[in-house]
Amino acid sequence: MKTNLKTYSGEGLEGNFYAIGLNYKKADAEIRGHFSIDDIAKEKILVQAKADGIPSLTVISTCNRTELYGFAQHPYQLIKLLCEHTNGTVEAFEKVAYIYKNRDAVSHLFTVGTGLDSQILGDFEIISQLRNAFRESKKHEMINPFMERLANAVIQASKRIKNETGISSGATSVSFAAVQYIMSHVPHISEKNILLFGTGKIGRNTCENLIKHTKNDHITLINRTKEKAEKVAGKFNLVVKDYADIQSEIAQADVLIVATGAQLPTISQELLYLKRPLLILDLSIPKNVSDDVLENEFVTLVHMDELSALTDHTLEQRAAQLPLAKRIIAEIEKDFNKWADHRKYAPTINALKNKLVEIKAGEIDYQRKKIDGFNEEQAQIISDRLIQKITTHFANHLKGEEGSAESIELIRRVFQLETA
Length: 420
Prior knowledge:
alpha/beta; 6-stranded parallel beta sheet; 54% helix; 12% strand; elongated; oxidoreductase; GluRdtase_dimer_dom_sf; NADP binding; NADP
């Protein structure tokens, strides 16, 4: 929708509201990395934008997207800012980018902020990142009333969707699904011994989820390269054992999580000397746990494909909640757009009211001198009510019109109004 800013937001500023950026849908990890913006670069962008006369701007940069939301005469102003403070080029940006304008930009921000545009549907981590971004912009005095109101509307939509739909429920990553499985199948998990073998990406994510959700401090890490395990353990104050100790550590474990990323099985029946039940979760592709471990009567084995089915089921359930989430967004977005549309009338109505007050003051002063016993108090009350009724009548007229620029201009000419 190509709507002039003065028509859409009532800001009276030059330019339009734009959303420019790139995300996981068209830009791979390497390209997203070129356009990634750290905290120092964000601050530099905001400072330069202010110096360049851009009235309002917010910067978002996550592992899955980099976006700028702001007012500009032309979107290239924002693209130039982005490219000057990242390792990306305009040419590379144009190949994978999107540019939204005015109401389309507003709709895009609602979709992003409510997790509907996330790589994992219903990921609400983005709303805290947006909130921080708007807070940073406000600190630099780079948020105008339009964007501040928009930010609050998006946050409101996110809260309602989170509270009124099931779009954020369930496990959406294998590491989280593994932890949920453990918690639902192992009683008193906080008291059990958990052994994590492999500290690559999935292993690290699983470790974080274990600590966050199980409150367990009996977690032991083993990795073929001990230094990698120690790096993860140091972050969470966990125990690290040598790879040579894996057999004895398995014997003491209640839960074994395997995420080694090896091409051949690393855990087999030969390593198991068990005297109590052991739940083994294999989070690796290809499988890193040999099926022969099931020959041991104490073993329960869960493979990654079973956990993936849980995440697929979760995403199906979340997708079923989309219509309700979209209805909530539509309701709040409609209210915001109505507010934005009505703002364009405010300068004219305020100027009209000031003009009528000026006429009233002159007339009361004239009548006071002309009429003996003039009741000024009554005159004030009656004239104030008339001014209120007249301005309300004009306001309703403007709000009821579709594209009332001509009406606004006519009122300004008839009453000789000056608006900022």
